[in-house]
Amino acid sequence: MSASFEPIAKMAAELNRLPGIGAKTAQRLAYFVASMPLEEVRSLAVALWEGRKAIRFCSVCGNYASEDLCPVCARDDRHNGQICVVRDPRDVAAIERMHEYGGLYHVLHGALSPMHGVGPDDIHIRELMDRLQTEEVTEVILATNPDVEGEATASYLARLLKPMGVRCTRIAHGLPVGGDLEYTDEVTLLKAMEGRREI
Predict the structure, then answer these.
(1) Dihedrals φ, ψ of 137, to 5°?
(2) CA distance from start to end of the chain
(3) CATH topology for 75-172?
């Protein structure tokens, strides 16, 4: 069977559109799907289709939800005055895996990037500012990525929040646990030195 066999090629082309799936991996997955029993393929397709249809955005924080509120915003015990600002729903999932943060979230759905034409009106900054007017918030935790866009977004938000009298904090950056200084880039080392604390 040739690699250009049309049904396999079509499946591989669609799978190749997914992030992190290169052409070879897409082809390998397509061949795997081709070898699956038809009922299992149908079950996979239905799960993807039904799952995607059921997903919406939380009306409060912008996280993924299946109802009006996401599972975090729906819990009364999470309304503790903290809002953690993140770039996208994947970041919410990452922080939730920690099982330590007990506050709410605000999902920006992007980061400021003037080079790519993304300004403050293109992400959910206005919605965050509206929340700060209507909810009792004592701290905003800026948990955007430690890259150029994430730092620009955090700096912009910090400037907006300062006059409001809300405590604004930034997650720490630096060396990962188990990392080696020898292989760490200069920017990460600089952030680790700047964020050092007394022990």
Answers:
(1) -120, 125
(2) 64
(3) Dna Topoisomerase Vi A Subunit; Chain: A, domain 2 (3.40.1360)
